[in-house]
Amino acid sequence: MAKKKLIGKIVSSKMQKTVVVEVERMKFHSKFKVRHKMHKRYKVHNEDPEYKVGDRVIIEESLPISKEKRWRIINKV
């Protein structure tokens, strides 16, 4: 099975070797026939301190690194 890849924006980098990435997607509401934005935040492993708040990055699923970290940064968009 292929690893999932998502594109998101870094919203927090206050932890050591961890950043919080917010991924936005559009969802269609079946009753009201309207699209709306959904947001989800992922804790992502960041070995290098080169990524800053506001950067758009590609993240990839990985084996569990800690209790909440299951994603790694691949590169900037």
Structure description:
With 77 residues, this protein is mainly β. It has no helices and 5 strands. The chain has strands spanning 5-15, 18-29, 34-45, 56-61, 71-76. Strands 1-2-3-5-4 form a 5-stranded mixed β-barrel. Strand 1 and strand 2 (18-29) form a beta hairpin. The mean pLDDT is 95.
Number of strands: 5
The number of helical segments is 0
Q: Which consecutive residue ranges, at least 5 long each, have pLDDT under 50?
A: none
User: Tell me about the biggest sheet?
Assistant: 5 strands, mixed, barrel
Order of helices and strands: EEEEE
Mean pLDDT, rounded to whole units? 95
Principal-axes shape call? globular
Q: What portion of residues belong to β-strands?
A: over 45%
Q: In whole angstroms, how far apart are the ends?
A: 24 Å
Strand arrangement, major sheet: 1-2-3-5-4
Question: What descriptive keywords fit this protein?
Answer:
single chain, 77 residues, mainly beta, 5-stranded mixed β-barrel, globular
